[in-house]
Design the sequence.
């Protein structure tokens, strides 16, 4: 006998980004004195908030021809794969040194409290790719600029840049404007 499965009704309330923003915790003096850390994990605990952020990203990027969503370690790994699946793209991780098993290329960058490096698999992207680079938060822009440079080294066609949160006072957007369209869902 042939039967059709019925989709379960979605059991969540529609949440607005302003409500999501209220769920984000602020932690003073972390990871060092003078930094006010915006902890998005408290918003991600809430199913409706998580769905709201994912749905807003999908609205922004569906239909733009994106072939790969690149998430930056570690909090960029939360939304990037969900978004990639929703818009029909692949997911590529950018990681800290020593975490990727195959041949990599790397880029060093400065951040608000020191220097660091990130890496991508050398064969993860190519000249046919339209890339959405995603991270959770834009502060000074150093990490994202390094990620953009890694993607450019791979020869990608186009880069879109996205964050869940932007810290406007730190003016990280100014560093990144030369590279392409930048969006952030929420601002502080």
Sequence:
């Amino acid at each position: 006998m042939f039967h059709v499965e019925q989709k379960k009704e979605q059991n969540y309330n529609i949440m607005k980004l302003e409500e999501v923003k209220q769920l984000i915790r602020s932690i003073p003096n972390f990871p060092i004195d003078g930094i006010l850390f915006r902890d998005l994990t408290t918003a991600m605990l809430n199913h409706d908030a998580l769905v709201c952020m994912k749905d807003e990203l999908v609205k922004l990027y569906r239909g733009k021809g994106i072939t790969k969503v690149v998430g930056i370690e570690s909090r960029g790994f939360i939304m990037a794969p969900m978004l990639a699946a929703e818009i029909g793209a692949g997911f590529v991780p950018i990681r800290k040194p020593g975490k990727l098993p195959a041949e990599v290329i790397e880029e060093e960058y400065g951040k608000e409290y020191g220097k660091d490096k990130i890496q991508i698999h050398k064969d993860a992207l190519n000249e046919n790719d339209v890339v959405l680079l995603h991270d959770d938060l834009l502060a000074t822009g150093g990490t994202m600029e390094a990620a953009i440079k890694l993607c450019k080294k791979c020869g990608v066609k186009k880069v879109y840049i996205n964050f869940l949160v932007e810290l406007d006072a730190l003016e990280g957007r100014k560093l990144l404007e030369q590279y392409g369209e930048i969006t952030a869902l929420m601002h502080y």
In short: The helical segments are 17-22, 41-44, 47-61, 76-87, 142-153, 172-176. The beta strands are 25-28, 36-39, 68-72, 90-94, 104-111, 114-121, 130-138, 158-166, 182-187. The CA atoms of residues 180 and 188 lie 22 Å apart. The chain has six helices and nine strands.
